[in-house]
Automatic annotation (TrEMBL):
Highest taxon of the lineage: Bacteria
Active site, UniProt feature: D67 (proton acceptor), D136 (for ring-opening step), H138 (proton acceptor), E143 (for ring-opening step)
EC number, UniProt record: 3.5.99.6
Site (Part of the allosteric site): residue numbering on this chain: S146, R153, K155, T156
Record's catalysed reaction(s): alpha-D-glucosamine 6-phosphate + H2O = beta-D-fructose 6-phosphate + NH4(+)
Protein name as catalogued: Glucosamine-6-phosphate deaminase
Regulation of this protein's activity per its record: Allosterically activated by N-acetylglucosamine 6-phosphate (GlcNAc6P).
Transmembrane helix in keyword set: no
Enzyme class, spelled out: hydrolase
PROSITE patterns according to UniProt: GLC_GALNAC_ISOMERASE
Family matches, as CDD domains: GlcN6P_deaminase
One annotated Gene Ontology cellular component of this protein: cytoplasm
Length: 261
C-alpha cells in the first residue's frame, strides 16, 4: 500500500488529480469511479482546472458511481446522481451518456444491484476508484462488519448517518432515505487502482486502522491492504496516529520519479 502524506487537503487533491490526468493521457476512455461528499471536492476542482487549462482531455472519460440512495428520484437535487452531475460531470465536460450508476428507484432493488455489478464488468472494470473513509473505517456505505467479499447491495443507513446527512435535506431527517445501494467491498476491490483520500484529525484512528491494523471486517477500509495497487493520501491530521508516518514521508520524498501516484 502506498501512503502519501501531504500538507493539506488542497495538496492531496492536486496530487490525485494529476494521477487521474496521467491515466487519462494513457487511456482517454478510462472508467473513473467517483464518490460524493466534501472530501473529494479538492480532487474534482483540481482536475477541472487541468481540463480548463488544456492539460488533460476528459471528453472520452467515463464515470462510475460508488453508491446511491434508494427511492430518491434521479432528478432529486440530493440524489448522488444529481450531486455527481453538478460536481463532476458538468465541470469536466462529461455527458450523462458516459455515466454509470445503480438504479435506486428500481422495483427490484436486488436485481438492480446485480445489474450494476454486471455493467461494471461489461464496461471493462473501473480503472481508478476514488474513496473516502468514515471515522469508523467504512468505505462507500460498507459499515463495520460488512463482508470483505460483499457485492453491490442494498444497505440500511444507521440513524447517525441519517442525522449527519439531514443537512443536505434542509435539516429535515424525515426526508433522508433509510436505504442506499452501495458497491460492496468485493466490488470495490476489483478496480485496478484504489485511491483513498482522508483529511483531518477526526480520520486519524480510521486511517491508522486501515494502514497499520489487521485486515478485519470491523474496519472495512482495511481490505485495501489486500489490493495490489492501493494508495492512501492523507494530510498531517489524518496521519497523526500512524506509527510509520516518518517512514512514509521518507519513502515518498525519495521517489522523485513519481509524477503522480
Amino acid at each position: 500500500m502506498e501512503v502519501v502524506i501531504v500538507p493539506d487537503a488542497k495538496s492531496g487533491g492536486e496530487l490525485i488529480a494529476e494521477a487521474m490526468a496521467q491515466l487519462l493521457r494513457r487511456k482517454p476512455e478510462a472508467l473513473l469511479g467517483v464518490a460524493t461528499g466534501s472530501t473529494p471536492l479538492p480532487i474534482y476542482q483540481a482536475l477541472t482546472a487541468k481540463v480548463r487549462s488544456g492539460a488533460v482531455d476528459t471528453s472520452r472519460a467515463r464515470i462510475a458511481q460508488l453508491d446511491e440512495y434508494v427511492g430518491l428520484p434521479a432528478e432529486h437535487p440530493e440524489s448522488y446522481r444529481s450531486v455527481l452531475r453538478r460536481e463532476v460531470l458538468e465541470p469536466l465536460g462529461i455527458g450523462m451518456d458516459a455515466f454509470m450508476g445503480p438504479d435506486g428507484t428500481a422495483e427490484d432493488v436486488q436485481a438492480a444491484c446485480e445489474a450494476y455489478d454486471a455493467a461494471l464488468a461489461g464496461a471493462g472494470g473501473v480503472d481508478l476508484q476514488l474513496l473516502g473513509i468514515g471515522t469508523d473505517g467504512h468505505i462507500g456505505f460498507n459499515e463495520p462488519c460488512s463482508s470483505l467479499a460483499s457485492r453491490t447491495r442494498i444497505k440500511t443507513l444507521t440513524e447517525q448517518t441519517r442525522v449527519d446527512n439531514a443537512r443536505f435535506f434542509d435539516g429535515d431527517i424525515s426526508q433522508v432515505p433509510h436505504h442506499v445501494i452501495t458497491q460492496g467491498i468485493g466490488t470495490i476491490l476489483e478496480a485496478r487502482h484504489l485511491v483513498l483520500l482522508a483529511t483531518g484529525l477526526g480520520k486519524a484512528d480510521a486511517v491508522a486502522a486501515t494502514v497499520e491494523g489487521p485486515v478485519a471486517a470491523v474496519c472495512p477500509a482495511s481490505a485495501l491492504q489486500l489490493h495490489p495497487h492501493a494508495t492512501v493520501v492523507v494530510d498531517e491530521g489524518a496521519a497523526s496516529k500512524l506509527k510509520l508516518a516518518d517512514y512514509f514521508r521518507h519513502t515518498y520524498v525519495n521517489k522523485p520519479e513519481w509524477q503522480g501516484i
